[in-house]
Structures are given as structure tokens and as C-alpha cells.
Amino acid sequence: MSKSIAGTLKPVAYSRSSTEFVNTYNSRKLSEKSGADWDDKENPTLGEVKREIKNHYLKAQDYTCAYCQQKIVVDHNGAWDTEHIAPRESYPGFMFTPENLCVSCKDCNGAKSNKPVLVNKKRRTFPKQSKDYTICHPHFDIYSNHIRVVGEAVLYLPRTKKGQTLIEMCGLLRFVYSFADYEIVDLNIGTKIIALGTAFQNAQSDLEKIAIAQILKTMLDEGLRAAALKQLEQM
Ligand SMILES: [Zn+2]
Question: What is the DSSP letter of 145?
Fold first, then answer.
């Protein structure tokens, strides 16, 4: 058993019947495994294992997405995805490894998709250390060491390269950029710029200042574009 670090996630402990299923799966040759094994709807035992995984991580994470830290307190399956940190399509061998599993919201899971997260992409044995991953890892890293969440989970500021990579990989700036879809472009952008200006003044490092400046630039570019399009519609 690996030592648990304060602030990181408690891995799922399988029930006896799930352990049997997982051991049988793990004993197969790698060439006989594929990411699609997860979706076998004909297999009720697999369904039970998946339920066990999801229920464990929903509670262990307190209904909080491992990547964006948004809290979504609903049990129905629609709001949550069981997430393979090293994607199952690329690493079916790690499909049921407890430390490769967590829950994430649909948006983060969709954005992250099959993007690579391992430093050594050809790993055959499960990598168990923080330094083996390019993103801050729900089991091996403490989120707040890598990303600072400002305000009501709107602004994600990188503290490390792993934090920056996660912000980009999961599209975490979607919250700050979401204004582009809004009807009233001008009012909304004004409020956000003031909030970002305050965040800029209170930045805790040069890295944070640069990140906020980049966000402001994108917001202004996109916001002005949206405003111009709206004006053109009215002509
Ligand atoms: Zn999320």
C-alpha cells in the first residue's frame, strides 16, 4: 500500500467480487485489452465494478471535480464521469488501477479526452509518482500547490508548469471566457475586466500576473469581436 499524502485522494478499495473481476482482467495480455472494454454493456459484473468506483470517488472527492474543483451535488450519473487519469484508450492496462481513477465533470472530461499525461508515454507499469505526470495528479499531487482558484471558481492561476498544463488540458478558462456566449456583451465584459484587474493587483507572483494579462488580452479580443458582430447584426 502506498503512503497517502495529506490532501490527496483516497484510492478505491474494491469489494471481493470486484477484486476477482479486476484480477481476471489484469491477468489478460495487454494486447488483448482495449479502452472499449470499459463500455461492455453486456457485462453486469463490470457494471457493478463501475458503480463501485464512481460511488467511492464521488464521496472521497466530496462531489468536487478533480480538475476544475467545481462542486456538483447530484447523484444521478448524468453530471459525472468516471475519469481515467492516464486515458484508457492509450493505457487499457491501467483501466482499474485505483490510483488511475477519479471523477470529473463532463466538461473537464470532454476537454481532457485522450490527451497524453505521462512524461514517459510508453510506460507499461503504472507510474506512481508525481514526477511521472505532466499535469497535477488527483492522487499524487496537492491541487492548491499547482493551481490557485480565485473567486467563485472562475479564475484558475498556475503556480507550476503542471498546473498550467492542467489548466490548458481541461480548458479551465472556459469559465472566464464564457461571456462570449452572453446576450449582453458590454456589461458582462466590464464586470469581468474589473474582477480581473483586482486579481492582477493581488497577484501572488509574476507567473500569475502574466497569466492574468494573457486572459485579459484574450477576453478583450474575443469580447470586442463578439460586440462587433452584434453591432453588425443590428445594421
Ligand atoms: Zn471539472
Answer: H
